[in-house]
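Glycosyltransferase, MGT family (Ktedonobacter racemifer DSM 44963), 407 aa
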Amino acid sequence: MKYILANVPGFGHVNPTLPVVEELVARGEEIIYYVPEGFKDAVEAVGATFRPYELDLSNMAPPAMGQGGQMPGFQIQNALPFRMIKESQRILPQVLEQLRQERPDAILYDPMCLWARIAAQVLHIPAIQLRPSYAVNEHVKLFPMEPGNGARGPVPPPFMQQIREDIATLCEQYEFPPFDLQGIFGHAEPLNIVFLPRAFQPAGETFDERFVFVGPSIRPRHEKSAFPLEALEGAPVLYISMGTVFNNQLEFFKGCIEAFGGTEQKVVLSYGKRIQPVELGPLPTNFIASAYTPQLEVLAHTDVFVTHGGMNSTMESLYYGVPMVVFPQMVEQQMTARRVSEMGLGVMLESSSDSAQKLREAVERVRQDVSFHVRAQEMQRAIQQTGGYREAADAIMGHTQKTLQRA
């Protein structure tokens, strides 16, 4: 069978799909992977055919911006539907005819690829969602647009009006059924693969058989690293990383050096590509700082993980039974930080600007309180009972075969 996989250019979205693609290819399936440049090597390494599409993010600022580039009451997460609609307007003309000629048996797509959902319906191709984060229904709203339910304020009327107009234009252009904002995030396909265990999903019991919670999709990655893993033997290990998007956190990293320099633990600090090593200043002897770390291998040695709470990092931490201290940087990460806290898997700190003392106290609390480790290991066992990328491949192939038989 032939599959189109459509994704957005983010490691948190792409990484969970790669083991699934590799498994499908190993079973003889053909995968054509649409994602912007920058992911070509990763896509081709797992045996898929790479197809790039172009984005123009410079034209995606929300309308009616005020002084300082922000609208009163505007939260950055509320720009997401605006971006998704603008991206669809730009991408669909690039790919629609290609997809028509490819004649795939199914389109697999990330929920943020609204253009892929539209293309599948316009071309009458069966569609399957691949969700790297929480499933959404009437009980779980990931990006609330109105006050309450975690939202800090309403979306300003000019912004909402622009979104409604853009949705109407898009639907008219492609003869697509009208939808509203919740229809962007809450839409479900006949099959939805969710890359977390049902035990971690809020209101997990409310999702029906259309949702398959396969857990983390983890397989050894196709990359080489000179990271000195042997240096992590023989002492407790604290791992600090703010991911690949919100990692321009120089003051936070300096606070970590102040908090944990000279302690008995080994500290691995992953500072990303936006900070120069010299900016960190002299490193204590118990620190290993690197722009890149092989996260899975480091987590296998880690006792406590200080993280931004991205879903990939959270799932990888729990895959190894590692409790966390979470500094969320956006609304979805705030949801994850609260989930980690309420389930006893770690603690949440409100801001990465919290003092070195608060950070040290939080890490020490998680490190010494055995209950955090016990609960993280319980979630690790729940993850081990999921099928990961193999279960995802089984579900995709089985669903596609049944769909073709009915056609």
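The first strand starts at residue 2 and ends at 6. The first helix runs from residue 11 to 14. ok done for today
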